[in-house]
Amino acid sequence: MSDIFDGLGVRKLLDDLEAAQTVLKEFKASIAAPDVITDLTEQIDDLFDIAGCFDRIATAERRNPSAHAKLNSAGGILHFESVLNSTAEVIDECTVFIQVLRSTVENVVRASGEAVCTASEAYFRNQDWYEEVYCDLRLRAEALRALFTAIDLLQCQNDTDDTSQYLKARSSISTQLHHQIGLVERSLGSGDYQDTDAVQKAVRVATAVTIYKPPVPNKHFVIVRPVRSYFTGRVRQLAKLEAAFRDTAQSSQLRFVIYGLSGSGKTELAFKFADEYRDRFWGVFFVDGSSRKNASSSYAEIATLGGVEPNEKAAKNWLATRDLPWLLIIDNVDREEINVDELLPSSAKGCVLITTRNPGLMTYGNSGDRYLELMPMEPSDAETLIIKAAEEPRPWRKVAVESAASICHTLGFLPLALVQAAKAILNGICDWGEYLSFYDRETQRIRRMLHGRNRKELEERKRVEDDSNSLNVFSTYEILYESLVSSQEEKYKDAVELLHVFSFFHFQNIRLDTLISAATNPLREERQRKDDEILERELHKKLTKKPRKPWSMFLRELRALANNKLASPIPLPAVLRNPDGLGLNALEDEADVRLRYALGVLIERSLVVKQDRSTGRYSMHRLVHKWIRERPEMSTAHQALWCQVSMTTLAMSIRQPPYGDSKEESEARRELLPHIRHATTHHVLIEKRLEENALTGRPIWSLGNNYAKSYGRLQAEQDVRFSRVYAETGVLREACELQERALAYVSGRLGPDHPLAIWLSLFLSKTLWELSEADIATQKQRQARQLCLSTWGEDHPLTLDVTDLLGAALYFKGRWGEALFLHTDNTEKLKRLYGEKHTKTLQSTRNMARLYYRYMDYEKATDLHQIAWDGLKETLGETHLETLISLEDLSMSYVRYETTTEDHLKDEHLMQTQKNMTFVYEQRKQRLGPEHPYTLLASLYLARVKSELGHHVEAERMIRNGLETAERNLGEKHIGVLMAKTIHGQVLTRLSRFAEAEEVFYALIDKEGYKLLADEDGDHPDRLVNIFFLAQCLQEQGKLKEALEISEEFLVGIATIGGQGRGLTHKILPRMRVTVARLQEKLRETAGKGEYALEKN
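and the corresponding structure tokens:
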């Protein structure tokens, strides 16, 4: 064996290292800075030490060969020889590096002379060879150290006695080797090394030794069942556990906590880790932590293994006195009354792995990452798991792969649910493509049996309960639910109700402030109503003619009030009600505290998860979410009840418009859309089932047979609030349907002339405008104004509100004369009533400015927009949505067409406009979302400004991208889409892409596209704008005849817009006449030249 050691080349390496040390020491002694190249010197000394270790082994082996005797087996000898061969290769590389280093240093000194003698260490650090040599030597020193430890480990004796000193030494050496291999691997992974084959081989050889010679031979492996053969994935999670329990020789007890939802595979992960790394532990033991009784029984079994008294105390003492590493899995520590400290062995030894549903137990972890929240599986791993668990033969069928994906998504990638589904498929209960429908049918069948009223069915219930085992993925959840229901504590009752409410919300992004708002908004709105009444009385005092409410309206209000008094209370969960009549602050505090306690109960059981610690957002696993909503034990009537409670909770969290328009409230409302859609979707399904039940003659428990058809104050108020969310998120058609339904109800109860009905009519008209149904919207506004005039008079605040909206609509339709008349009078009345700085006055001023801009009175438009923006910024703040609209209008008023007044500051104005529109766009994108119509509008205007500044390519790209989104969301005929195409055609013309521009403009001048926007007796201004731009496009191409025809059509159309002949006074008309005359002259000249040419020929 000594000849193998002699072949390592250690002696040669030591000689070269000594020579290198001598050169470096002489060099350091000759210069003024003795700390120069300290790192390199220390690294060579370190390499000298490890090479000396190998030399001492070789010397000892020559004197007394004993390595063979210690190896005990042929396998050990093979590993030993592999280690020595790998060592020789690494030493050979070290020798080469040292020889190069020695000659390099000598050459540097000779070449640099005095300059190097006065240099600092930085001189060498700036040399490329210095860092390379230093890193390469360090890497190979680490590899040699690992190989030397591998030799030590191979010579350790085998023994299974837990008190053996041999085993303690072996465990310590093995742990050290694992650590050293890790150092080399990290160095290889982080550095850019050349020619590392020998080092990589050293890692492989040393790793093979750790497998051949594990830290300790596993003597005890006690878990309740083997790991499932179809275990899949969880690679990152296993790596975290391995890192936490890597150093089993620590002097303190190592603990790690796995927490997560029931069915997420916590126990299976713990068993997989124990099985995969059993050779690190002399013993692996299991304790059932689900109760103190079960834990004591588990410890008694462990005591039996140790040959001590079969009780918990003796078992813990036995573990505490073991010197070799052991792993204790304490599983299912879920119940609140269990004291985890009592379950832990009291010694400072061993490794403990705890699994629990309760995230609060994460504080018991102290090793590695300390704890791990086990989330649902990755989709690809989940699909592999269900296919393997169903024993699907390879190659897997296409239907199996595709169905697995949909099943996994529906079951939320939860391992236990996937395994249960696989069992149903494996046992032939259903095929892959049938499972999801079978699952739903089975749930409904069990519900029918459990809630059937036929006595014969009662005999079947026991069988049904047995059948429900096919859904036993929910059994754990049901136990948790029943434990909550059985408690009389307030926080548990609140927790149960929140579970039901959340089950009809979307399963993600459930906000705490949404729930608190649902509790406090009724009080806020009651205060707001009182404030509005006071303000209304003050405003009425300013009116010349005091308004009087008609007796018929007074009687209708009395009748509605009486019905409201007799109606059932608003259905809210108890935690959000105010039975004690608390004030706003007290109610907010009460709701906040009770909600947090209830949520804490649910979080402890992992029925609800806090999405992150920084925000008050919560979520549920989609399978728990579905189970709570569709528990077979819950009747359809109970589902209807909780669905309505959920919708009412969502509705009451939304302030009645126009209030609640702060940035925070607006952002909160946007996040409600998925919840509203989820709740309303299930509401429709439940109503359908209730109707089916009614048709079968079954009375519907407590809700009456007409439940599905009922529509009252609760539903109307809910529709109005939900429509606000739909409108603000761009879901306009749904918003319109809800508003129409609410308006019909209110008009029927209170009359169409009631202020609430008129307000709803205006609310609806705004939505109709957003849908480009301008004609219908204007009709409703005219009707509302006429009702206001006949009931309240022309100076009433409500009449002024209606008039302002009507004027804005009319100018947009091209009825400029009527719009100007209404706005001029209305703005003055608003100033007298509210003052110049009031929001309503400023909005009216903005509408006046828009009218002047349309009429090309640009300076006046800009001045009025400036007044409106300054006032709204002061009143509402710079980022309020209304202020952003005014900033947008002000900025775009500097983008002007065919102006006769030269703007000497045009470039400066356009640069400021670009800055302003960027601000508006970013604010809307953040608050409304990237695809909201107003965000798309800001993007369009920003592109328009960029084109005005000459950035046509970028502008065209922005418009094209925005158009794709707008056409998808709003439709091709929407006014916003038409306007975007107009600007797109302009930019295409500027890019000389004339054919594309012509195609756009010819499509835009089709009158059919403006049928819903223009009055029957006139053209629409936007159509004329497109004719104007088309004429310019044709002129630039020299298509004079076509340009003349189009321009003449423009002259005909402009005479029909504006109302009262205003179109004929528009500033564009004289210029367009000049253009027509010029085109006619050019065509005559062209024709004359043609005739002259013919005569000449």
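(Above: one complete record from the training split.) The radius of gyration is 41 Å.
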